[in-house]
């Protein structure tokens, strides 16, 4: 790993550690996150880790560009991967059903599986949270089993219900609130991701892991889940 540092603004640097997405990258990304936070201290405004990069936003009234770059290089020197067990493991209960997951049959057919096996395969992995974005509390997770990977919808939906769980290529995610979206929806959870984010305490953070568990409609309703069907097509 040879880090590269690019200038993205007068008060921001982009630290690139890798060029491809891999779950094993996150041990290095999280180690770099901690090292950079320590190096910038009070001069750090924000630090955004992602799949292969970290965006460092610093106070340019405290640090000049050359010093910010020097601090970044020093922080990354001799970097060792972080303990991947340090992130939290979240078990997310999901009601997988065609009424709230219209793409269940499509994804299953593409993978050459029946729906029950598809659900079991989607639940049979602890997904790494790579990054947060798109909407408050929205975590991009992966990597999905290659057999389940499915391209996004050609035409996104205007409305995807809060709690919808979907797949796009080799990523999976949960929509935290009602919004447009083009992912293949498989089911729905009642976990209130947006409420956590609204309080400034996002449930999912980069480096965490997510394990989906299949539940019945009755269990979903008991958790306060909304059973309103999702439109079948955009």
Automatic annotation (TrEMBL):
Domain of life: Bacteria
Pfam families for this protein: CT_C_D
Enzyme class: hydrolase
EC number: 3.5.2.9
InterPro entries: CT_C_D, Cyclophilin-like_dom_sf, PxpB
GO MF terms, alphabetically ordered: 5-oxoprolinase (ATP-hydrolyzing) activity
Domain Carboxyltransferase: 3-204
Keywords assigned by UniProt, alphabetized: ATP-binding, Hydrolase, Nucleotide-binding
UniProt-listed NCBIfam families: 5-oxoprolinase subunit PxpB
PANTHER family: 5-OXOPROLINASE SUBUNIT B
Protein name (database record): 5-oxoprolinase subunit PxpB
Gene (name only): pxpB
């Amino acid at each position: 790993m040879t880090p590269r540092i690019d200038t993205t603004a007068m008060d921001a640097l982009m630290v690139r550690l890798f060029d491809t997405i891999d779950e094993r990258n996150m041990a290095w990304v999280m180690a770099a996150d901690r090292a950079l936070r320590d190096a910038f201290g009070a001069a750090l405004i924000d630090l955004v880790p992602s799949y292969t990069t970290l965006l460092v936003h610093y106070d340019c009234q405290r640090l000049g560009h050359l010093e910010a770059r020097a601090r970044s290089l020093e922080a990354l020197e001799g970097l060792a991967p972080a303990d991947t067990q340090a992130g939290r493991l979240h078990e997310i209960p999901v009601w997988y059903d065609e009424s709230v997951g219209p793409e269940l049959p499509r994804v299953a057919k593409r993978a050459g599986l029946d729906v029950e096996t598809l659900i079991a395969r989607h639940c049979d992995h602890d997904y790494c949270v790579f990054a947060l974005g798109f909407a408050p509390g929205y975590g991009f997770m992966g990597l999905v089993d290659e057999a389940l990977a499915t391209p996004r919808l050609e035409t996104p939906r205007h409305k995807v219900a809060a709690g919808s769980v979907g797949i796009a290529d080799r990523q999976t995610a949960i929509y935290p609130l009602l919004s447009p979206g083009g992912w293949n929806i498989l089911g729905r959870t009642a976990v209130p991701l947006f409420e956590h984010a609204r309080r400034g305490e996002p449930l999912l953070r980069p480096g965490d892991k997510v394990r989906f568990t299949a539940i019945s409609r009755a269990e979903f309703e008991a958790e306060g889940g909304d059973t309103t069907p999702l439109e079948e097509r955009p």
